[in-house]
Write a structure and sequence with these properties.
heterodimer, A: MetI-like fold, 77% helix, B: 7-stranded mixed sheet, 16 helices, globular
Amino acid sequence: MTRYLIRRLVYLIPIWLGISFVAFSLANLTPGDPARLMLQRDLGRQPTAEEVSSVRDTMHLDDPFILRYVRWLENAVTGDLGTSYRTGEPVLSGLAQRFPSTLQIAGLGLALAIVIALPLGIMAALWRNSAIDHLSRVLALLGASMPSYWVAYLLILLFAVKLNMLPVAGKGGWQHLILPSVTLGLGACASLMRLTRSEMLEVLGQDYIRTSRAKGLASWAVVVRHGLRNALIPVTTVVGMRFAGLLGGAVIVETIFAWPGIGKFVLDSIFDRDYPVIQGFVVFMGTIFLLVNLVVDMSYAWLDPRIRLSR
Amino acid sequence: MERYQDALRVPVSRRRFLWLTGITAGVVSSGLLAACGSDDDGETPPSTGSDATPTTGASTGGDATATPGDTADTTPAAEAPTSPSGEGEGAPGGELIVAATQDGYRTEPNRANVGQYPLNTNIFETLVRLTPDYQVEPVLAESWEFVEPNTWRFLLREGVTFHDGTPFTAEAVQWSMGRIAAVGGGQLGVDETSVEIVDDFTVAITPSRTNLRVIQQISHPSNSIVAPDTEPAEIRVGTGPFMEVEYLPEDRYVVEANPDYWGDAPQLSQITFRFIPDPTTRVLALQSGEVDLVVEVPRESARDLTSMDGLSLVTSKVGAYEALYVNIHGEEPYDLGQEKAVREAVAYGIDKDSIVNGVWQGNAEISNTMIPPAILGDAGDIITGTTFDPDRARQILEDAGWVEGSGGVREKDGRQLKLTMIVGFPNAEIHTPMPEFVQAQLADIGIEMDIVQTPDTAIYEARLQTGEGDLWAEAGSQNDGNPCFLPDLLFYSPDPEGDPESMAYGNAFAPGAAFDAHIDDCRAAVTTEEVQDAAAEAMKVLVDDEFVVIPLAGTFRLYGVSAKVQGFEAHPSGVNQRWASVSVDEG
C-alpha cells in the first residue's frame, strides 16, 4: 500500500510538468497583451510604444518562451507561482485565500448530491418501476437538463424573494451556503442517482446476493453490505471526478451568488490575461484533480479488498 | 431480466431503508453545515458610525473666490459646491446597503485604487469634481489658474483634515501625484518633479508633456488625494464624507460617516457596498429587500422593476453611449467601409428610435454624438447626425452602383454588399439584442450583415489590430470633463513610429487631417468654450462628414431604489457618484 502510494505520488511529477507546460503555452498563445491591458486601465488611454515596451520589459514578456517557462518552473517548485498582474498579490496566496470558499460550496453540494442520489438510486433499483423509481427518473431528468444558472435564479426567486427564508447572495453565515451548494449539488445529483440505480440493479442480480439471502442474512445487510458496497466502485469514481469538476467549474454559480471563490478570481484573470494567475490556477487545479483521483483509487481497495493496489 | 426481477423481490422494508438513509443524511449534512458554519466572518459588522454626530468645525467651503491669474486665467471657481459642515443638518442616521458590481479594485502599491475607482465610496476626494452636467467644480481646490505654457496652479481649501486627523495641505497633493508619477504619470502625464509646493495651500502642477486638459482630467477619482505617507493598498485615509470601516475583497466595503467632514454632513451613518457581479442577482437582492439600492440595472429588467411595489427606477442624465465605428481602412474582404456611400447608407438605414424605444425600452435617448451632449454645451448643436430614412439609404447605394441582386443583397462588380459587425467591447452581452435589430434593418436596404461576438475585450482588440471587421459595436462612458478624450483616444491618426498594437483604432478608423486638426485645436485650447468648439468640430467630422461613427444612443445609468431611500441623485458618470446627500427612512 505504502509503496503504491509513493509510486503514485512520483507519477504526479511528470503529469504535473505536462499540465504546467500546456497551461503556460495556452495562456501565452491566447490573443491579448497583458502589458497593454494593464496600461490601458492605468492610463485611461492607448499607451505609447515606450510605455508598453517598458512594462513588457518589467514583466519579462519579451524573453524567449522557454526561458520564461523555466524561470516560472524554478520559482514554482519553491511554492512561488508568481504575482498577479491584475491585483499585485502573490498567486499562491490569492488561490489559497479563495479556495476554502469554493471548497465549502463544492463539498456541501457534493454531500447533498450523495445524500439525495444514493438513497434514491438504491430505492429506485429496489422498487423498479414503482412511484419512487419514476420520481427519481423525473428528478434526474430535471437535474441533468436544467443549466445551473437557471436553477440558481429559480432557487433565489423561491427561497429568497418569495419565501424570504435565505439570503440572495454573498458570503456570511451558514444560510449563505445553502443556495449555491444546492445549485451545484443538483447537477451532480442527477447523474449519480442514475448511475447508482443501474449499478445496484446489476449487483442485486448477482449470484452472491442470492446466496447471501439464502444464508438468511437480514435484507438490509444484503442490500447495504453486499449490494451497495459492490455497486459503489463506479459511483465512487464518478463522485471523485464530479468533486474535482465542481471545484474547478463553480464559476457561474460563484458569479451568480457573489461567492468569493476561486472560479470568479480566475475568470477575471482570464479576461485580463493575467498569465501568472491562469497558470497557477491550472496547475493548482490539476494537482487537486490528481490527488482526488489518487484518493478514489485508494478507496477501491477499501470498498473491494480483492483489488490489490500494489499490482 | 429475470435476475433483476429476482433482485426486486429483496424483502427490505421501505420504512427501515428510509430510516437508515435518513440517519445517514442527517449526520453528513449536520457535520458539513457545522464545519462550514464556523466561517461567519462575512457578516456585516455592527456600525461604528451610527452614533456619530457631525461637528460644526469651520469650513472655508462657502467663500471660495477666484484667484487672479497673471496669465491666461481659465476657470476660477466662484462658488464652492457645499456649505460648511453640519449647517442645518441633523445627526447622521440610517444605514444603506448598496448592491455594487464586481470588485474591480487594484491592490498593489502605487497602483492601488481601493475606495476610489471604479466604485467610489466617497472616502477620498479630488481637487475638483464633475457636476452631473460635466462641468468642473471645486472640492479640495478652491480655485485654479492656468499659467503659460503648461502649468496649473491650485489654491487649496484650508481647514480640511484627513480621517486620521492630518491636516490637508499641499504636501498631500504632492504625495498623491507622486504615486501617479511612480506608475507612468497617468492621463495627467505627471512625473516626480511635476508638483511644486508654492506654500502650504498652493501647488503648481506642470505635466511632463504639454497637457492643457489637466483641469478636466484631474476630476477623475483615480486622481484622488490620499493622506501623506499612506498607501491605499494598505490603508485608506482620505478627506471625504465617509471613512472606511472594513474592506473585504470581492465581498463588501463598509464605510461610516465622517463626523469631521468639512462640507455638508453625510446623512447616512453607514453604507455597505456589496459586490454582486451578476446584474440579475442584484435586482433579485433588491426585490428581496436584502439591499436598498442597486447599481447598473440591466436595461431589459428596468420595466419589471418599475412595476414592483416599493421599488423605483432612478436614471441619470446621459453619461454613456452606444455607437458603431466603421472600418475605413480595411483590406478585402473588410474594405467595403472605405466607400463613403456605404457608410452613409448604413447611417441612414438604422432606425435609432426603434432601438432606443423598442430594444432598450426608452432607457436611453437618441444621440448625435458619442460623448454626452452636456459636455459639449451649445457647441454640440453643429452636429446634425442622421435620421432613419431607408429610401434615402437605398438611393445612395443605387447612385453608388450597388444594385439589388439575388436574395435582395445588393451587388456591384460581381461583389455582394456584405458587412461584418464585431461585438465585444466592453463585452458582447451589453449590446444585446441591438446587433440583430441592425442586421434586420440593413437587410431591408439590401445590406447583408454577419454578427461576430468576441468572448472578451482582448480578443476584440486583437481582431481590431488585424482589421477583421466592418462595423464595430462599442459602448463607453465619459468619466472626466475632457470632451476630446474619446475622439482623441480612438480616432487620431496613429504615429507610424508608435506601438503597432496601440494603433489599432487609428489604423481602422482615423479619418485623417481634417479631424486631426480639430483635435490639435482641442489639445491647445485653454478656455472651456474653445475646448467645446474644437471637440464639436471633431465630432462633426466623424459623424456628419465622414460617417466613421454612427451614434446609436446616449445611455442612462439605471439604479433600482427601494422606497425608503431618499435624496439619491444618479450621476451620469458612475465613478463620480456621491452618497453624502442620500438618507434612509427607517420608518
